[in-house]
Design brief:
The complex is a heterodimer of chains A (327) and B (360).
Chain A lengths: L2 E3 H15 L3 E5 L15 H5 L4 E3 L4 H13 L3 E5 L10 H8 L2 H4 L9 E6 L14 H5 L5 E3 L4 H13 L4 E6 L2 H4 L1 E3 L13 E4 L4 E5 L2 H14 L5 E5 L2 E3 L3 H11 L2 E8 L4 H12 L9 E5 L9 H7 L3 H12 L2
Helix pairs in contact in A: 1-7, 3-4, 9-13
Chain B lengths: L18 H26 L13 H8 L8 E3 L5 H6 L4 H9 L32 H16 L5 E6 L6 H12 L4 E7 L2 E2 L2 E2 L20 E5 L3 H16 L5 E6 L18 H9 L2 H11 L5 H24 L40
Parallel strand pairs in B: 1-2, 2-3, 3-7, 6-7
Antiparallel strand pairs in B: 4-5
Helix pairs in contact in B: 1-2, 1-4, 1-9, 1-10, 2-7, 4-10, 5-6
Chain lengths: 327, 360
């Protein structure tokens, strides 16, 4: 089974899907000749040409709004937002339009569109190239939000996202693009949306994470294992629709729950997970539902000392695990 | 600015319309007006809570939609597009069930406010409330038409107030770059709710902005049905021929308040309102057709009775239609139901809910 980097898995999957289904187009800033600023679409323009790989002007609202229209008229757009930080001008199109089209038309219309966006910090990207944006969109019924953490899942989930009949926001942690490698079968497998994965079985505590934090949670789990703390790591993979069953089953088994996310702590996606666990697994809990998340400052600061201070890392997670384990 | 106000021997010939087409266009203008007037009566009678109107826009709406091909081309309309929707295939029943928000309202099954029309069957994109978002949808539809080589044309329509939104610039720029089969129609009625043109449109016109995108901009008297038709025909042909988008600004009038919740005499003078009424496209078109001998007394009486019957039928029909069933309220968030997307603690009951006002 060939090993692939995270970004290779994404690039090859888009190309495969475009070969399979001619209704798929790619559009975004610099996605054409340049192949994207991270090279996620490298080679697509030379294979599929101007009509199916479209360099757009610097207009995020247009990228999403036009993708909605193209989806309404028979295409399956795969839009790239160059950095997730820049999706905010398209918030109205995402939330008022894409998310609501099916509901507001009573199933008269659907928007089979995938929006890919690199997110996350730890790459010297500062305030405007490091943001985690998932909480804005997981709040909105009608958008599916996917955050893969391995090349295998990146491929399987991207296939499912592109083939899905609803708008999918597919978030790629940019620090993982070249630092994460893994086996990727050459078969036409998919990973279903809405299914979490137990990436590390354990008995004493459940750690819930996604994206880059799913890797850091695994590192932390390995570190504390040497100290005799058995941690079960749940990699959510799809944030909405949420696989409540897998995470609640795990918490009911272990009795303790730590939620890890990179975004600002206050009102972040993990707050919803904490609320669900508190409401639905209360009788099984042996300690407070706990979060370890990014500090509540307006962005990831640039200087490496400040960035290190901001970022949740395996050591910080391991520290939180130890505290909760001792409760 | 084109004008067809003068009496001509064969009225439609100058723009390539047969008499039967002119009569049908007149029927649609008159039907839209009658449906619209009925909406206000029902609102004042307490039967429906909200009305947003297209009175004064109907002539332009029918004429501009006319050159498009039904069930082939696309329109992304706005909340005043009653005549547009009727022209593209929706019925008086479809419009009235939307006012009552019934389960059978084809636009949304009672989910949206009145005025938010849409029909996949008729290629009318579902309307939302944030303005100008639909321009990008029409541009995307046009993009898909070009890529798929369907020969379709996509049109979007909005007011001049909406045309100030950033989405308009983003979409026109892209549509012009790629010469998309797209027509942008601005129904300029002079007001963005209460704010007059001078305070919301710099340069006193929208059509001149087309020059910035290197596309044709056309101003047309929105009360002149044939001039509107001609402008739209040229734009649609141009789009279909692969020559790119056109911006049409139709100067229409708003004969009603912005909505049933607005009191327009607070910001518009009686003189201004009286002058607008003089420009009403409905009597003007009627006189034009009468003068040309197309609208005979016999035809006029027949149409009048037909329209009256259609509006009465639509009202009775909508009155009798059921409210949506609350157990359907979570349907169609996504294509499929997800176990984690659960109903609230009160299930699908309306515990403690109050009766709708119109039943009080």
């Amino acid at each position: 089974m060939p090993a692939r980097t995270f970004i290779e898995a994404i690039r090859e999957t888009i190309a495969d899907e475009m070969r399979r289904d001619e209704s798929i187009i790619v559009l975004g800033e610099d996605v054409g000749k340049k192949g994207g600023v991270f090279l996620a679409t490298d080679g697509l323009w030379s294979e599929f040409g101007d009509e199916r790989v479209i360099d757009t002007p610097l207009t995020e609202s247009m990228i999403i709004g036009t993708s909605i229209g193209a989806a309404v008229n028979g295409l399956r757009p795969v839009a790239e937002i160059q950095f997730a930080d820049f999706i905010h001008p398209a918030f109205n199109q995402m939330v008022s339009e894409a998310a609501r089209m099916r509901y507001r038309s009573n199933n008269g219309y659907s928007v089979p569109m995938t929006v890919r966006a690199p997110y996350g910090g730890g790459v010297h990207g500062a305030l405007y190239h490091s943001q985690s944006i998932e909480a804005f969109y997981t709040h909105v019924p009608g958008i599916k939000v996917v955050v893969p953490s391995t090349p295998y899942d990146a491929r399987g989930l991207l296939r499912s996202s592109i083939r899905d009949d609803d708008p999918v926001l597919y978030l790629e942690h940019k620090k993982m693009y070249r630092s994460v490698r893994g086996d990727v079968p050459e078969t036409d497998y998919t990973v279903p949306l809405g299914k979490a994965r137990i990436s590390h079985p354990g008995t004493q505590m459940t750690v819930i994470a996604y994206g880059l934090m799913a890797h850091y949670a695994l590192e932390a789990a390995d570190a504390v294992a040497e100290e005799g703390i058995s941690v079960e790591v749940v990699d959510l993979r799809t944030l909405r629709p949420l696989d409540k069953e897998t995470l609640l089953d795990s918490v009911r088994k272990t009795g303790k729950c730590l939620i890890v996310y990179e975004d600002n702590r206050f009102g972040g996606y993990g707050a919803e997970i904490a609320a669900i666990v508190a409401e639905e697994a209360f009788d099984y809990l042996d300690g407070p539902v706990t979060r370890i998340a990014g500090p509540d400052v307006p962005g990831v600061p640039y200087n490496h000392v400040l960035e290190d201070w901001f970022m949740v890392n395996p050591e910080k997670i391991a520290d939180a695990i130890r505290k909760l384990a001792a409760y | 600015m084109a004008s067809t106000r003068d009496r001509v021997e064969h009225l439609g010939e100058s723009v390539g319309l047969a008499d039967a087409e002119l009569i049908e266009m007149y029927r649609l203008v008159a039907l839209a007006r009658a449906v619209d007037e009925r909406m206000w009566i029902l609102n004042r009678a307490g039967r429906i809570p909200f009305v947003i109107s297209g009175q004064g826009h109907e002539g332009a709406q029918v004429a501009i939609a006319w050159p498009l091909r039904k069930h082939h081309d696309w329109i992304a309309p706005f909340y005043r597009s009653i005549a547009t929707c009727l022209t593209f295939g929706m019925t008086a029943r479809d419009i009235l069930t939307a006012q009552y928000a019934t389960a059978t309202d084809p636009s949304s099954g009672g989910r949206q406010m009145p005025g938010h029309y849409g029909s996949h069957e008729h290629n009318l994109v579902s309307v939302s409330s944030p303005v100008a978002t639909q321009l990008l949808h029409a541009v995307g539809i046009a993009l898909a038409a070009k890529i798929r080589k369907t020969g379709q044309v996509a049109m979007t329509i909005m007011g001049e107030g909406s045309s100030n939104q950033g989405d308009v610039h983003e979409g026109l720029n892209f549509a012009a770059i790629h010469k998309l089969p797209f027509v942008f129609v601005v129904e300029n009625n002079g007001y963005a709710i209460s704010v007059p043109m001078a305070r919301q449109v710099a340069g006193s016109s929208v059509w001149e902005r087309a020059a910035g995108y290197g596309i044709p901009g056309i101003a047309v008297d929105g009360a002149d049905v044939l001039a509107c038709y001609h402008a739209a025909k040229v734009a649609v042909e141009r789009a279909r021929a692969g020559e790119g988008p056109t911006l049409i600004e139709a100067r229409v009038m708003r004969l009603t308040a912005h909505s049933s919740d607005d009191q327009q005499t607070k910001y518009r003078s009686e003189e201004e309102l009286a002058a607008e009424k003089e420009r009403d496209p409905l009597p003007r078109f009627r006189e034009q057709l009468r003068g040309a001998g197309i609208l005979t007394e016999e035809v006029e009486v027949r149409l009048s009775l037909e329209i009256q019957a259609a509006v009465d039928d639509a009202t009775a029909y909508a009155e009798a239609q059921p409210d949506p069933d609350p157990t359907t309220a979570m349907d169609w968030v996504f294509a499929e139901r997800w176990p984690s997307e659960e109903p609230p603690p009160w299930g699908f009951g309306t515990l403690g809910g109050h009766a709708p006002e119109h039943e009080g």
